[in-house]
Design a protein that fits this description.
9 strands, about 150 residues, 2,3-Dihydroxybiphenyl 1,2-Dioxygenase, domain 1, globular
């Protein structure tokens, strides 16, 4: 499947990245990089970390048809996914079958994410864990993620 998984961040759905940044700052978090827009996913986002290295990704919808809009309607501001950096040791198409055999649904093909410098990300769903994001790091330095 994948090599080492490393916890990257917890994704938090918010109405406004800017307002949520103020509240996290009051709790000792600092921004990591710039606020970013991801037009493909219709979200505005940023990363913030505390002095212990805990990282939160703030995600707000840019339109009503953003997937995050639905989360906010149902739950209000809330953590909604956990993200891992994953070493992919072979084509992602091979990994897809293995994920499925272990009960994980792959929700889409890996796609570039502006917040992570264009690295591919993919979302998985587990009925026992919920939504999981993987930031794909090819183990051999080659791009293994853009295969279905």
């Amino acid at each position: 499947m994948t090599g080492n998984l490393s916890l990257a961040h917890i994704g938090w759905a918010v109405e406004s990245v800017d307002k949520a940044m103020q509240d996290l700052s009051a709790l000792g978090f600092k921004t990591v990089g710039d606020v970013c827009t991801d037009d493909a996913r219709k979200v505005k986002l940023t990363l913030m970390s505390d002095s212990c290295g805990n990282t939160i990704e703030l995600v707000s919808p840019m339109s009503e048809d953003s997937p995050v809009s639905e989360i906010l309607k149902k739950n209000g501001p809330t953590p909604y996914h956990i993200c891992f950096t994953a070493e992919v040791k072979r084509d992602f198409g091979d990994c897809r079958k293995e994920f499925a055999s272990k009960g994980f649904a792959v929700l889409h093909k890996p796609a570039p994410a502006p917040l992570f410098g264009g690295k591919d990300v993919v979302f998985l769903y587990s009925k026992n864990l919920g939504l999981i994001e993987l930031v794909i790091e090819p183990a051999d330095g080659k791009d293994a993620s853009n295969h279905d």
